[in-house]
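Dear colleague,

Thank you for sharing your sequence with our group. We've completed the structure prediction you requested, and as agreed, I am returning the results in plain text so they can be pasted directly into your records. Please verify that the sequence below matches your submission; if there's any discrepancy, let me know and we will rerun it promptly.
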Amino acid sequence: MSDRVAAPSSVALPTAGDGLAWRPVTADDIGLILDLKRAAGRIDHPRSLVMRDELEEEFGSAAFTPERDAVIAVDSAGRAVAYGSAVAPESQETIVWVDLDGTVAPDRRGEGIGRALLAWQEARGLQHLAACDAALPGWLASSAQDHATPAIRLLEAHGYERARWWMELERDLAAPVPAPPHLSGVRFVPYAEEWQERARSALNDAFRDHWGTQPVTAAEWAAGDRLSASRPDLSVLAVAPGTHEGERVVGFVFVDVNQEEWPLRGGPFGYVTAVGVRREARGHGLARAMLAHVLRALRADGLKHAVLDVDAESPTGALGLYQRLGFTVTDRSVSLVKRF
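Please find the predicted structure tokens below.
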């Protein structure tokens, strides 16, 4: 890719916004960034929260060098007014995907700060693309909730296209949950550390044919396991006899529970973070059986709703499966991409 992407040798800090001091980011800024993202989230994604441990794991990732990959703007009172990053994940198998994450405080929008921040992110993103020698497509990508029309318009004005829609779905757990059908040759077990690598292998296989997905590295997987919202006891693995390594994970449903978010949705809920079945095990009702099992577990744990997100064009027909299980669409978001 380095032979077709031109990138600046250096990227100057933005200068937009009266009274703002722009500078590179360090791990000491995590608290400022969290406050900014929480304030902006009340408008941009009012039913979900950015968590401190998520930011800490991001800052600890080998793929993220804060001093080079992110900038922050602070006002005279020491409050973060803008934050933006451009990060290329470690795993680049079919796409070099650079994720652009930008936030501007709601009371400082409309001053050109977002435009200046995006220009910095693009320049840093181009450096990531130009540094890659692989003959792969290069994407600068961002996302926004359906209602965040100013952010979508800004990205589209700079050449980004709406590439994929995502649906948020919710299910009332008071409604009857179908009994999990019996499946021969597999058994269900809670997720635990002993299954870590086998589960990661299953997820990477299951999502290999999904839009934009790149393999999850061992370090990324371990970071997800460390998050406080992770609920391995409510998650389930479908395991079957293997050839060399003992039992093999052929399907999975992973669950998070974040009590801080419960007031945003009117009560206790669990978030289904991933559902998948290895490609050779599809077509036998395994995903439906695992989901029925998990819905019953969530209800038994005292939760009132189940929430998940799905690719509107999932090649496995996941949206239809969820709707047949009683999930209904409550929100939409969109991925916007500039391709190189």
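Summary note from our side: The chain has a mean pLDDT of 95.

Kind regards,
the structure core
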